[in-house]
Each structure stands twice: as structure tokens, then as C-alpha cells.
TrEMBL record:
Residues 27-144 form the C-type lectin domain. The lineage of its organism: Eukaryota, Metazoa, Spiralia, Lophotrochozoa, Mollusca. Transmembrane segments: none annotated. The keyword Disulfide bond applies. Gene3D superfamilies: Mannose-Binding Protein A, subunit A. The keyword Disulfide bond applies. Pfam families: Lectin_C (PF00059). This is CD209 antigen. InterPro entries: C-type_lectin-like, C-type_lectin-like/link_sf, C-type_lectin_CS, Ca-Dep_Lectins_ImmuneDev, CTDL_fold. Keywords: Disulfide bond.
Length: 152
């Protein structure tokens, strides 16, 4: 964690107080914000967009560990869903599809399973990995933002 950059509106609500994180000293830094208020997937997604970002992408074990350190391993929505085409998961950050390697790295064993129609993806505290489940559930969420410069 290198920078903490907070910007406040007149009503004192933070508009985008993301923090800058690095997975390791040589890695590209990422800007993340953990939001503990619970919301359904659609609200979580649109909230991150309103902050100029997107629901977090977690494609690697390293990113998963960073996510867990920020959220204390609690339930959160992440930026991945198969709402448009069943079984075809898309990352919100770059629009790419979930790969088999990513799935093996970050999903819980046996997930995603679309059990009873599950199109949105959460970090599941119980197993400390990702799981698909119905989008109407309410969780906190983590927003990610691409770096406009050297600060968030
Ligand atoms: Ca599904
Ligand atoms: Ca599931």
C-alpha cells in the first residue's frame, strides 16, 4: 500500500477514495475500494461505474490474496457474470472471458455450477474462493479503477 488519496464532495461523502495497491514491488499497481454496504449485483456494478471504475477482477491467486487482505475474507461481489450467455463468464474490467486457468485458480471446487440459475459471482467467505449465485443477493463489493496516473 503506497498511496491513500481521498477526495470529498461538499456533503463530505467520498467520491472515489480508492487506495493504491501493489501485488509485489514490480507489479502494476491497482486502485481498489472496499465497500461494506450490502447491495444486489446490479447496484454494486452501477455504483462502481459511477465511481469511474468497475467491480474488481480477480484472475489470479495473487489478486485473490490481495482481495482477502483488503476485505478480511468477507463475502463480496466481484466483477464477473454470465448474465448475457449462460456459462460464458465475462470480466467487467476488460470484457474478456473467464479462462479455464483462471477458473481453476480462483473458483471454489465444483463452482461455478449455476445451481438453480446463478449468473453473478461472489467471493464466498465460507470457502475463501469464488462462487456463482443468484444476482439478487446482497453483499458488500470491491470496486477497481484503472490508474489514470501515479495515484488513485
Ligand atoms: Ca449462470
Ligand atoms: Ca454456485
Amino acid at each position: 500500500m503506497i498511496y491513500v488519496n481521498q477526495v470529498y464532495l461538499n456533503n463530505s461523502l467520498p467520491i472515489f477514495p480508492h487506495q493504491l495497491y501493489k501485488l509485489d514491488p514490480d507489479a502494476e499497481p491497482v486502485c481498489l475500494r472496499d465497500i461494506t454496504a450490502k447491495a444486489n449485483f446490479d447496484i454494486a456494478r452501477s455504483t462502481c461505474v459511477s465511481y469511474g471504475g468497475f467491480l474488481i477482477s480477480i484472475k489470479t491467486v495473487e489478486k485473490l490474496e490481495l482481495f482477502k487482505s483488503i476485505t478480511s475474507g468477507q463475502d463480496r461481489w466481484v466483477g464477473l457474470d454470465d448474465i448475457d450467455v449462460e456459462g460464458q463468464f465475462v470480466w467487467h474490467g476488460d470484457g474478456s472471458n473467464l479462462t479455464a486457468v483462471q477458473e481453476k485458480a480462483v473458483f471454489s471446487s465444483g463452482e461455478p455450477n449455476n445451481l438453480g440459475e446463478e449468473d453473478c459471482v461472489q467471493f464466498r467467505a465460507h470457502v475463501q474462493k469464488l462462487n456463482d449465485l443468484p444476482c439478487h443477493h446482497k453483499f458488500g463489493f470491491v470496486c477497481e479503477r484503472s490508474l489514470p496516473g501515479s495515484t488513485c
